[in-house]
Amino acid sequence: MPWMKAVFEVRHKDILGRIGVLTVGGKKAETPAFVPVINPVNQVVPASEIAEMFNCNIVITNSYILFRRLRDEVRERGVHAVIGFDGIVMTDSGGYQVLQYGEVEASPVDVALFQEAIGSDIATPLDRPTGLVRRGQAVKTVEETLKNVKATMEAVGPSSRCVWSAPIQGGLYPDLVEKCVDEYRGMGFSYYCLGSPTPLMTAYKYDKLVSMISVARRRLGPVPPLHLFGAGHPMVFPIVVALGCDLFDSASYALFAAEDRYILPYGTARLDQLYSLPCSCSVCGSTTVKELRQMEKRERFRLLSLHNLNVCFQELNQVRQAIWEGRLFELLERRSRAHPALYQAFQAMLEDTQLIDLAVSQTPLSKRRGLFLYDRYSLLRPEVRRAMAWLEKFEVNKERLETAVLVNVWSTAVKEHTTLLEKINGLVNGRYELFTYGTVYGLIPYSLNNVFPYSQTTTPETLIRSLENEIYEKAARTLSKAGFKHVYVILLGRDAYPGFAKGLTNHLTQALQAEVKFVKPT
Amino acid sequence: MPWMKAVFEVRHKDILGRIGVLTVGGKKAETPAFVPVINPVNQVVPASEIAEMFNCNIVITNSYILFRRLRDEVRERGVHAVIGFDGIVMTDSGGYQVLQYGEVEASPVDVALFQEAIGSDIATPLDRPTGLVRRGQAVKTVEETLKNVKATMEAVGPSSRCVWSAPIQGGLYPDLVEKCVDEYRGMGFSYYCLGSPTPLMTAYKYDKLVSMISVARRRLGPVPPLHLFGAGHPMVFPIVVALGCDLFDSASYALFAAEDRYILPYGTARLDQLYSLPCSCSVCGSTTVKELRQMEKRERFRLLSLHNLNVCFQELNQVRQAIWEGRLFELLERRSRAHPALYQAFQAMLEDTQLIDLAVSQTPLSKRRGLFLYDRYSLLRPEVRRAMAWLEKFEVNKERLETAVLVNVWSTAVKEHTTLLEKINGLVNGRYELFTYGTVYGLIPYSLNNVFPYSQTTTPETLIRSLENEIYEKAARTLSKAGFKHVYVILLGRDAYPGFAKGLTNHLTQALQAEVKFVKPT
Hints:
2 copies of one chain form a homodimer.
Chain A: E1 6-14, E2 17-24, E3 27-31, E4 33-38, H1 47-54, E5 58-62, H2 63-69, H3 71-77, H4 79-83, E6 88-92, H5 95-101, H6 108-117, E7 122-123, H7 135-156, E8 163-164, E9 166-168, H8 174-184, E10 192-194, H9 197-202, H10 206-220, E11 226-228, H11 237-242, E12 247-250, H12 252-258, E13 261-264, E14 267-270, H13 282-286, H14 289-294, H15 297-325, H16 328-335, H17 340-351, H18 353-362, E15 371-372, H19 382-393, E16 403-407, H20 410-413, H21 417-427, E17 433-436, E18 444-445, E19 457-458, H22 461-482, E20 486-490, H23 500-511, E21 515-519
Parallel strand pairs in A: 4-5, 4-12, 5-6, 7-8, 9-10, 10-11, 11-12, 15-19, 16-17, 16-20, 20-21
Antiparallel strand pairs in A: 1-2, 2-3, 13-14, 17-18
Helix pairs in contact in A: 6-7, 7-8, 8-10, 10-17, 12-15, 15-16, 18-19, 22-23
């Protein structure tokens, strides 16, 4: 092994998100992880306090500031002692600052040796962030990044005690992002970072962020851990996790606080835009918005930073809960209504069929809780696509029977299974294939009825109504392909969607070369 | 005045929700108010603790239990002393328990005099909850309720020191609900309660709940305070407030806790369905899900009740924040994705045009923050309907000019207003009417451009795309009605919706008897 490796163990998955454990040296961090950015010279909330309050085991800090302001001290005492944190400390390359302020003439090798010298756990080769630039410029940033990475890896050699991250640049140019990933393959990286999301996020181009992450994750494959640099507002955490980002750092908690901005799970508000503090964290429980407004600036900065951190970690816990119970998609449905641009990103994600195909391969076959569907976009979610695809492939009439019986009450009738079958046998002579109707999936064959998610799906009546004709047509295709000659549409009890059973019967009568009977037993 | 009145002062409004202050005797409570149900013989969290932790000034307690278990004590010491709460104490009538357990033969007059005797601040005549019953039964419950209310009001007489609430029953029969309201009108009530939501909520019939509240609120008119009995889960708070409920009690915090159920803002989870505690309240900050599971039952009951209360009060704070900033509808968009049945209720609300008309009359003309639109349902919100209606009525060509100029960049170009006009004057000879295009509203005339919400609306590109043809047609109707002979479609800078300006030009060229020019200045 050329240098130290991060070990990443996945425990639970949903869409492309996962709960996992990242091990670096002997230290562990649970993912998805929010990685707070620690300003080494001005810790508004000390890293040790963040660690304790939020059970946080990984932070990131800034090589450039360390180099400029604390060079000798950090070389001597190490980065952990200087920032006061004994978990995993990641360092960025300072590439962004080198570009911005340009005061330091640092070579990739200087930057690398400095990170090694200060004992960084996860170090970053001097990358050149692409940002939102024209293609020519983007190509240059990628070439320079790749050149720097190679120089770095040669300089640090096989005995390096850092885990080296592979910085993926290329921004909005898919082929450049792919080129980065391809170049890194085989170089022995165990930790990847995706750069340049910040300009996309500040411009609310969340849909572009989706496609950038999608390109990187698809090219990387589903396995290796992926870190998103500068993820900004916690309202993007669910979608970036769903797209396959395992870690994401952000300084927003402090940057927003410095401007008197209060983070909400669905946005931000200036202090003068708050009626009260609609939060239960320790800060909001012990002060009022009026007190906050009148407080001395430094103390307000600290308290707002703490509150903002709290929102970030709480959102992270919601994401983990969602993955674990198999409802990450439900969380996306909710969070995508935090801002129209986020909704557009959610739609873009669902229309990225290659991405969803990958998600289908990663999403568990069965889940702790059922699916909630809302509208046509919900039908594009991985489990629904997969369930639809299974039905397409399933041979519904293996025994070449001539009679199909469609009933409406599988899920509630399972407990009276025998009664149901007796009832049907009383109505239908001879052998038959049995299906359920009245779901968004189309007709569900008997043998698939208890397979997740067919009967674990909750659908609003409005969605069934808006799909009525499509569902009828699909049923007709299924039955006609299987060559049934007799079809019974049986309505047991009340029609959950009044008129649906009758409508289905009428449609099948028109569409099929078969005898179709509607039966409502009394 | 026949008996004591509640005073209700409205401070901020949005949709049919409002932030207000309810004054009863000398005591005040801010609305919308979550009114926790206090079990007088088993306070899992003492009322005094709820008051202090959550700044709660109003609770409700159960007459039936007080009567059965603490009759003499509560007559002697008063209800405030017995439950240990000095804010507003409301008592229910016990009508539900009388029906359920039937052990007490209490007349309406007994029930009323008991509530007076114990010093209830807001008392409830012995009502007969309708529930989910057939019409014949529903009629009986309403008749009995009305009879009881009359008997009560005669018995207590004009010197009563209670505020008497008017219990509205009738359930799903709109005419019965209306009959109740009509009967109470002129009887001097200052506080109304709407009964029977619980069976609707436990059956997830939130859409029926919407129509029941809608009927009551429309018949009552927008002014008087309305209390919803038994509002259940906090995820319904936003919609019931938006429909005009000012107060709502619930015992769910304790009922759920007793079954080891943990309330989330978007649902509930049994303790074994939790990965961790995704919440920042004092309980969740000081224990873990594992500790909770292993804890002694009574202590767990208490901590879960506290957590559940916290979610309720936090949701209430979010609702108040949303009303205050004018984003109650945005909150509904988010919360309606908590459950498909809630989404269906949200759609039902938007399709209730009489309700929305009332909401249009109550929603402020201008707001602290702009509108977020998501999909076609967002277009049914009150501000959008109103803004569309204004445009329909607005005479777009008062001066009978022959030339219309359509530009795409109002909102961003306001700061360079003069430059913009100079630019247009350089392109167009003579006088013209000026409009903005590229919004969901259609063409916005110059003089309306700064009127809320035309340029304070954020729309995802996907929505504009899906409405493209409708927007084009609307523009054609506007221009043709106003009789313009020359139309300039000017595209300044980049088209926010690539191809939109060209598409508009093509459509207008086809649809209008006018000369249409597309101009893209360099």
